[in-house]
Amino acid sequence: MSRIIALIDGSLYAKSVCDYSAWIAERTGAGVDLLHILGRRETESAPANLSGSVGLGARSSLLAELGELDAQRAKLAQQRGWAILEDGEAALEAAGVHDIAVKLRFGDLLGTMEKFEPDARVIVIGKRGEGADFAKGHLGSNLERIVRASQKPVFVASREYKPVKRILIAYDGGASSRKAVEMVASSPLFEGLAIRLLMAGPESAENRKALDDAKSRFADSGREAETEIVSGQPERLIGEIVEDGGADLLVMGAYGHSRIRNLIIGSTTAEMVRSCKIPVLLFR
To answer: What pLDDT shows up at residue 41?
Structure first.
């Protein structure tokens, strides 16, 4: 059975990642791989400037001390990583999840994820990691790397968990949004939830047909979906709906707008992930 990959660190989002992973597990029956990755930044000291102005004996002594510091740093990082995972496991168990695999890994984020992604149903990650600049509202660099590289859906957890009852799909008729509709229409994760498809643009025959086709896909699955075409900027329209409490989860595509930017999160997508106070489920 495919797994839920829950990526956690020491940030404020770790608890929310576990809570939303538990929600997905409860509704789909999938197990959770709770994963914490230690990279070089966590386990190695900053390189020292051992210039020729330092004597040979002093350089040897410094190298030995740096080696000891690196070993201590790596040991502390590993102990902290296990503590983070233990807290995450406790949160999942408290939410009723029993199929949990706790994994601490060393190395590059994307290289590690390549090994786990083939068995993944979805990847759950916080909007910002512990190294992000919260004051400026920057997205976490790990989130952007995961979204660019992953072929699986990426669930971006908001800071606080809230029950999901209403789904808003930002629909543009493109490949990634059609993929989103297919998953929402067929997955047990969304069964019984209120579904709303929103298209930002003019009321045209082409746009209406695209929405009607998506609505028909839900009807084929025995589910209902409300559709709406509204003129205006997607960021503003979606933001207003979220602010009014009209959605608990935003579903949308992640894509570039040109061949030059085809590995960069689309500008609308990035803005919505930054500003939304609800979780966002992204599809490539």
So the answer is: 63
Please provide residue 191's backbone torsions phi and psi, each rounded to the nearest 5 degrees.
-65, 130
Per the structure, how many domains does the chain have?
2
* Same-domain pairing of 226 and 256: yes
**Lookup: tokens for 112:** 């590690």
pLDDT digits (tens, 9 = 90+) for 37-86: 987 665 555 554 544 555 556 767 777 777 788 788 888 989 999 999 99
**Where does 207-278 show beta strands of DSSP type E?**
226-230, 249-253
Same domain, 150 and 178: no
What is the reported pTM?
Answer: 0.84
Model confidence band, residue 257 (pLDDT cutoffs 50, 70, 90): very low
Residue 67 domain flag = no
